[in-house]
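Project outcomes to date are best conveyed with an example. Our students and postdoctoral researchers have been running inverse folding experiments weekly, and each run begins with a structure described purely in tokens. The record below, which covers 230 residues, was selected by the lab manager from last quarter's runs and is presented without edits.
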């Protein structure tokens, strides 16, 4: 039987040794190396040739997101699984866009933990369970499939009015100016902005503009957004 080769990167020694011991009990899995330091882990990749890297999201004084980008650039065939207690939606999106294949919650059951490793090794994408039924998971899946920010806008169903507001935000108009342009109250515009941020899993109107401008022709975004009636 050809075993799945794993590289573990976890700076908590207790967790690192526990994970390694648990994985080594599985007949189809093999831990080829385990590190508490990203630099050493990256240096080992050329020789260790893992199928899957298990990477702690919250490494102390180290940038896990940058590690993902480096591995994805230099070792594109390595599946990367992020380990965390409860990752924030913004973190999930950032890591997915950087090339992560899956997430394991540190309070997951042993079966879920092993299933995630095997799924990623076989080429599947695995989101945190608490997000799998949410709208956010649909947005992330588009990011996984397309790696194109403009696709996030295209993947979400907007009302006609929300579509208009996105265009005007992208043009740099203030809430008051948008309200005047669309003959709405400022409160109504704020409500639309709130709904757009929620649908796109964003936090600021600047991010809305950035996503709109990420399209090659954001002026015609109204023709490409999935639309529903108000």
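After processing, the design step wrote out the following sequence:
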């Amino acid at each position: 039987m050809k075993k799945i080769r794993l590289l573990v990167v976890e700076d908590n020694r207790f967790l690192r040794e526990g994970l390694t011991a648990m994985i080594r009990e599985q007949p189809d899995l093999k831990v080829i190396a385990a590190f508490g330091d990203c630099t050493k882990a990256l240096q080992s990749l050329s020789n260790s040739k893992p199928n899957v890297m298990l990477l702690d999201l919250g490494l102390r004084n180290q940038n896990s997101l940058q590690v993902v980008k480096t591995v994805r650039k230099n070792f594109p065939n390595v599946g990367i699984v992020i380990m965390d207690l409860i990752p924030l939606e913004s973190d999930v999106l950032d890591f997915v866009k950087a090339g992560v294949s899956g997430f394991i919650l540190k309070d997951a059951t042993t079966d879920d933990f092993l299933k995630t490793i095997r799924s990623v090794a076989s080429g599947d994408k695995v989101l945190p369970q608490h997000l799998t039924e949410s709208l956010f998971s649909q947005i992330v899946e588009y990011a996984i499939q397309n790696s194109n920010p403009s696709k996030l806008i295209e993947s979400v169903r907007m009302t006609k009015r929300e579509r208009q507001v996105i265009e005007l935000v992208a043009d740099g108009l203030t809430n008051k100016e948008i309200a005047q342009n669309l003959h709405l109250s400022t409160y109504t515009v704020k409500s639309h902005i709130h709904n757009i941020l929620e649908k796109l899993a964003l936090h600021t109107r600047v991010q809305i503009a950035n996503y709109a401008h990420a399209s090659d022709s954001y002026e015609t975004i109204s023709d490409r957004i999935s639309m529903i009636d108000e």
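Residues 186-200 form the longest helix (15 residues). Residues 4-143 form a domain with the Rossmann fold fold (CATH 3.40.50.2300). The training component of this project remains on track.
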